[in-house]
Design a protein that fits this description.
The complex is a heterodimer. By secondary structure, chain A is mostly beta strands. Chain A is built from no helices and 11 strands. In chain B, strand 5 and strand 6 form a beta hairpin. At the A-B interface, strand 4, strand 5 and strand 9 of A face strand 6 and strand 11 of B.
Chain lengths: 112, 115
Protein backbone atom coordinates (compact mmCIF):
# COMPACT_ATOMS: atom_id res chain seq x y z
CA UNK A 1 0.00 0.00 0.00
CA UNK A 2 0.87 3.66 -0.10
CA UNK A 3 1.63 3.92 3.59
CA UNK A 4 1.65 2.08 6.88
CA UNK A 5 -1.87 1.01 7.77
CA UNK A 6 -3.02 0.24 11.31
CA UNK A 7 -6.31 -1.23 12.45
CA UNK A 8 -8.46 -0.63 14.29
CA UNK A 9 -7.98 3.14 14.62
CA UNK A 10 -9.81 3.11 17.96
CA UNK A 11 -10.33 0.29 20.44
CA UNK A 12 -12.18 0.32 23.73
CA UNK A 13 -11.51 -2.69 25.92
CA UNK A 14 -12.82 -3.67 29.31
CA UNK A 15 -10.15 -4.27 31.91
CA UNK A 16 -9.02 -7.87 31.70
CA UNK A 17 -9.94 -8.27 28.04
CA UNK A 18 -7.39 -9.35 25.43
CA UNK A 19 -6.79 -7.12 22.38
CA UNK A 20 -4.99 -7.51 19.07
CA UNK A 21 -3.69 -4.56 17.08
CA UNK A 22 -2.73 -4.96 13.44
CA UNK A 23 -0.05 -3.26 11.36
CA UNK A 24 0.31 -3.47 7.58
CA UNK A 25 3.74 -2.06 6.71
CA UNK A 26 4.78 -0.55 3.42
CA UNK A 27 5.34 -3.34 0.92
CA UNK A 28 8.95 -4.47 0.85
CA UNK A 29 9.93 -2.84 4.12
CA UNK A 30 12.19 -5.17 6.05
CA UNK A 31 12.12 -3.37 9.39
CA UNK A 32 9.03 -2.96 11.56
CA UNK A 33 8.74 -1.17 14.89
CA UNK A 34 6.03 -0.83 17.53
CA UNK A 35 5.89 2.20 19.83
CA UNK A 36 3.59 3.12 22.70
CA UNK A 37 2.58 6.76 23.14
CA UNK A 38 0.89 7.67 26.40
CA UNK A 39 -1.16 10.86 26.60
CA UNK A 40 1.09 13.91 26.55
CA UNK A 41 4.25 11.88 26.09
CA UNK A 42 6.60 10.98 23.28
CA UNK A 43 6.47 7.54 21.71
CA UNK A 44 8.36 4.81 23.53
CA UNK A 45 9.93 1.85 21.78
CA UNK A 46 8.31 -1.52 22.35
CA UNK A 47 9.76 -3.99 19.87
CA UNK A 48 11.53 -4.41 16.53
CA UNK A 49 11.33 -6.96 13.71
CA UNK A 50 13.66 -7.58 10.83
CA UNK A 51 11.55 -9.59 8.42
CA UNK A 52 9.93 -12.27 10.61
CA UNK A 53 12.63 -12.21 13.29
CA UNK A 54 11.93 -10.28 16.46
CA UNK A 55 15.38 -8.91 17.17
CA UNK A 56 14.59 -6.56 20.03
CA UNK A 57 11.72 -6.77 22.49
CA UNK A 58 13.40 -4.85 25.27
CA UNK A 59 10.65 -2.23 25.41
CA UNK A 60 7.71 -4.56 26.03
CA UNK A 61 6.48 -3.53 29.50
CA UNK A 62 5.37 -6.94 30.70
CA UNK A 63 4.78 -10.52 29.64
CA UNK A 64 1.19 -9.51 28.85
CA UNK A 65 2.52 -7.88 25.69
CA UNK A 66 3.32 -10.08 22.71
CA UNK A 67 4.14 -9.23 19.11
CA UNK A 68 4.53 -11.35 16.02
CA UNK A 69 5.26 -11.00 12.32
CA UNK A 70 5.07 -14.59 11.09
CA UNK A 71 5.54 -14.00 7.36
CA UNK A 72 7.71 -10.92 7.53
CA UNK A 73 4.92 -8.59 6.49
CA UNK A 74 1.82 -7.93 8.62
CA UNK A 75 2.46 -7.66 12.35
CA UNK A 76 0.14 -8.05 15.31
CA UNK A 77 0.63 -6.63 18.77
CA UNK A 78 -1.36 -8.54 21.36
CA UNK A 79 -2.06 -7.37 24.87
CA UNK A 80 -3.48 -9.89 27.30
CA UNK A 81 -5.57 -9.06 30.36
CA UNK A 82 -5.55 -5.34 29.59
CA UNK A 83 -5.13 -2.87 32.44
CA UNK A 84 -5.90 0.83 32.62
CA UNK A 85 -2.23 1.76 32.33
CA UNK A 86 -2.21 0.12 28.89
CA UNK A 87 -4.37 2.97 27.58
CA UNK A 88 -2.27 4.73 24.94
CA UNK A 89 -1.79 5.18 21.23
CA UNK A 90 0.12 2.30 19.68
CA UNK A 91 2.19 3.34 16.68
CA UNK A 92 3.66 1.07 14.05
CA UNK A 93 6.51 2.12 11.76
CA UNK A 94 8.29 0.41 8.90
CA UNK A 95 11.45 1.08 6.94
CA UNK A 96 13.89 -0.31 4.49
CA UNK A 97 17.01 -1.46 6.29
CA UNK A 98 18.79 1.51 7.85
CA UNK A 99 16.60 4.19 6.30
CA UNK A 100 13.79 6.54 7.33
CA UNK A 101 10.94 5.04 9.34
CA UNK A 102 7.40 5.72 8.12
CA UNK A 103 4.70 5.76 10.77
CA UNK A 104 1.09 4.67 10.66
CA UNK A 105 -1.73 6.74 12.15
CA UNK A 106 -1.80 4.59 15.25
CA UNK A 107 -4.40 2.70 17.24
CA UNK A 108 -5.85 4.51 20.24
CA UNK A 109 -6.54 1.95 22.98
CA UNK A 110 -8.75 2.92 25.88
CA UNK A 111 -9.12 0.44 28.73
CA UNK A 112 -12.18 1.03 30.89
CA UNK B 1 21.84 5.15 27.74
CA UNK B 2 20.53 7.84 25.45
CA UNK B 3 17.95 10.47 26.37
CA UNK B 4 16.31 13.47 24.75
CA UNK B 5 15.11 16.59 26.52
CA UNK B 6 12.64 19.06 25.09
CA UNK B 7 12.47 21.79 27.68
CA UNK B 8 9.42 23.58 26.31
CA UNK B 9 6.15 21.68 26.51
CA UNK B 10 4.34 24.45 24.65
CA UNK B 11 5.49 27.35 22.49
CA UNK B 12 2.91 29.99 21.55
CA UNK B 13 3.84 32.21 18.62
CA UNK B 14 2.10 34.63 16.30
CA UNK B 15 1.72 33.87 12.62
CA UNK B 16 4.68 35.00 10.47
CA UNK B 17 6.94 35.25 13.51
CA UNK B 18 10.13 33.17 13.80
CA UNK B 19 10.24 30.19 16.14
CA UNK B 20 12.84 27.94 17.75
CA UNK B 21 12.01 24.63 19.39
CA UNK B 22 14.76 23.39 21.66
CA UNK B 23 16.16 19.88 21.87
CA UNK B 24 19.08 18.58 23.89
CA UNK B 25 20.30 15.01 23.95
CA UNK B 26 22.52 12.88 26.12
CA UNK B 27 24.60 10.03 24.75
CA UNK B 28 28.02 8.54 25.33
CA UNK B 29 28.19 7.41 21.70
CA UNK B 30 27.46 9.03 18.37
CA UNK B 31 23.81 9.36 17.43
CA UNK B 32 21.62 10.27 14.52
CA UNK B 33 19.17 13.11 15.21
CA UNK B 34 15.63 13.63 13.96
CA UNK B 35 12.69 15.98 14.19
CA UNK B 36 9.18 14.62 13.64
CA UNK B 37 5.85 16.43 13.46
CA UNK B 38 2.54 14.99 14.64
CA UNK B 39 -0.76 16.57 13.63
CA UNK B 40 -3.86 15.73 15.73
CA UNK B 41 -4.90 12.09 15.46
CA UNK B 42 -2.13 11.41 12.98
CA UNK B 43 1.08 9.45 12.98
CA UNK B 44 4.54 10.97 12.93
CA UNK B 45 6.02 12.61 9.84
CA UNK B 46 9.74 13.15 9.42
CA UNK B 47 10.69 16.85 9.14
CA UNK B 48 14.44 16.46 8.90
CA UNK B 49 17.38 14.38 10.04
CA UNK B 50 21.06 14.74 10.79
CA UNK B 51 23.23 11.76 9.98
CA UNK B 52 26.61 13.35 9.22
CA UNK B 53 28.19 16.19 7.26
CA UNK B 54 26.94 19.76 7.39
CA UNK B 55 25.61 20.68 10.80
CA UNK B 56 22.81 22.79 9.31
CA UNK B 57 20.06 20.56 8.04
CA UNK B 58 17.13 21.73 5.95
CA UNK B 59 13.85 19.89 6.01
CA UNK B 60 10.31 20.08 4.70
CA UNK B 61 7.88 22.96 5.19
CA UNK B 62 10.68 25.52 5.58
CA UNK B 63 12.10 24.06 8.79
CA UNK B 64 15.79 23.72 9.53
CA UNK B 65 17.86 22.50 12.45
CA UNK B 66 21.45 22.90 13.56
CA UNK B 67 23.49 20.16 15.18
CA UNK B 68 25.79 21.47 17.90
CA UNK B 69 27.98 18.68 19.23
CA UNK B 70 29.62 20.72 22.00
CA UNK B 71 26.24 21.74 23.40
CA UNK B 72 24.59 18.40 22.52
CA UNK B 73 21.73 20.30 20.95
CA UNK B 74 19.64 20.02 17.82
CA UNK B 75 17.27 22.99 17.87
CA UNK B 76 14.55 23.35 15.24
CA UNK B 77 13.90 26.73 13.62
CA UNK B 78 11.57 28.34 11.14
CA UNK B 79 11.89 32.00 10.11
CA UNK B 80 8.15 32.57 9.59
CA UNK B 81 5.44 30.24 10.85
CA UNK B 82 1.97 29.62 9.47
CA UNK B 83 -1.25 28.63 11.19
CA UNK B 84 -0.88 25.23 9.54
CA UNK B 85 2.36 24.62 11.48
CA UNK B 86 0.33 24.14 14.65
CA UNK B 87 1.21 20.61 15.76
CA UNK B 88 3.27 18.58 18.21
CA UNK B 89 6.97 18.37 17.42
CA UNK B 90 9.20 15.56 18.63
CA UNK B 91 12.97 15.41 18.71
CA UNK B 92 14.48 11.91 18.55
CA UNK B 93 17.81 10.12 18.46
CA UNK B 94 18.96 6.73 17.30
CA UNK B 95 22.27 5.05 17.87
CA UNK B 96 24.92 5.50 15.20
CA UNK B 97 25.60 2.01 13.96
CA UNK B 98 22.90 0.60 16.20
CA UNK B 99 21.52 -2.80 15.45
CA UNK B 100 17.89 -1.77 15.35
CA UNK B 101 17.75 1.98 14.52
CA UNK B 102 15.07 2.32 17.17
CA UNK B 103 14.18 5.90 18.02
CA UNK B 104 14.30 7.50 21.45
CA UNK B 105 11.92 10.45 21.61
CA UNK B 106 11.60 13.54 23.72
CA UNK B 107 8.31 14.42 25.37
CA UNK B 108 7.33 16.79 22.59
CA UNK B 109 6.68 20.50 22.14
CA UNK B 110 3.30 21.82 21.13
CA UNK B 111 3.73 24.67 18.66
CA UNK B 112 0.62 26.86 18.88
CA UNK B 113 0.49 29.43 16.09
CA UNK B 114 -1.93 32.28 16.71
CA UNK B 115 -3.33 34.66 14.09
Amino acid sequence: GAGVSQSPRYKVAKRGQDVALRCDPISGHVSLFWYQQALGQGPEFLTYFQNEAQLDKSGLPSDRFFAERPEGSVSTLKIQRTQQEDSAVYLCASSLAGSEAFFGQGTRLTVV
Amino acid sequence: AQSVTQLDSQVPVFEEAPVELRCNYSSSVSVYLFWYVQYPNQGLQLLLKYLSGSTLVKGINGFEAEFNKSQTSFHLRKPSVHISDTAEYFCAVSLYGGATNKLIFGTGTLLAVQP
